[in-house]
Amino acid sequence: MIKTIGKAMTLFAAAHLSATAATITPVEYPDGSRLLSLAGPIVPGDDANLQAQLDQAHRLGVKFLAIALSSPGGNVMTGWSLAKIVRTRQLATVVADNGQCMSACFYVFAAGVNRFATTSARIGVHSAAINGKETDDTKVVTLDKARQLFHELDVPAAIVGALMMTGPDDIYILSPTDLASMHVDFLPTPAAEAPKLAEVPTPQKQTEVEVEHSASEGRRLNTQALAASGGGDIERAVELSRRAATVSPLDPEILANLGYFYLKMGRLEDADASLQIAAQLRPSRAITWQNLGLVAAARGQQQRATEYFVRYLQSDRSGGPAQRQLLQWAADASLPTTQRNSAARALDAVSIQKNWSAKRLLQRWMICDQRQ
Fold this sequence. Notes:
single chain, 9 strands
């Protein structure tokens, strides 16, 4: 018979909020409820620990209904591994009175077949980092986990967008509305008369209408952002584009446009982050590689700019606009040296790869001679 957790959640919170190291322990209460608790930072090995405890419980005929979480986050890959175990074992997830579940802990919470939280709980998300720094590798991880949260754990697009758009040195705390959109059941505070855990083993999914609404709203905001940019109001364009990316976070055009607007504002780090994700989502979009090259050039990264401009040329299926653009930049003495040289080197590299005609090569070198 399924038991309620009511008072048990209050006891759990009092016992574990002050934990300084990751612990995963079984908890049994007088009413017969059996839970697992995870308290403290998520570190490598926690997934193996959880798996071992669940395997042992299965051998003993013991069934845990839920895992109660109180964690500031930690290792992203371990967090995701824990999430897969929770979903496979059909556990509910709970964040108790005054508890927190941040960063990598959110993956575990989202994996619950049913999700519970008290009204005083704090649940937050942000993008991935290594030693607090966002890198090209962590951007790949953020995108990968965003896709999995959306497609595998059915986390609403707006929350996925908040995760992707919030830097690793910041945190986005989910509002009651956010949590409700995830079909989180709220436990009263203090915990009492709590709903039953795991009554429905299959998590509720977003409806097609909800998903379509997010995509439609993202496109509407994107159109408004383009209009604002065309009218010279770049700050407004960024504001609208960020809203579009939040409600439709896996749309490569929206993310690429946001990156371009950041570039025009001179916010090069933000531009690079948005454009990198857009390029991963749709690597065939030539203009994204062009703008990544411009960002790298503006940051003085000539080698990276050259590599991006090469991708720009390779992605231009028509074979003309990208070549003409880079030829123009290579010959324009008014442009920064890094941008001109990167354009020239990209043309050199692709000329060799594609065995362009002698006439085109001659045109290329004549322009470079004029630039010199």
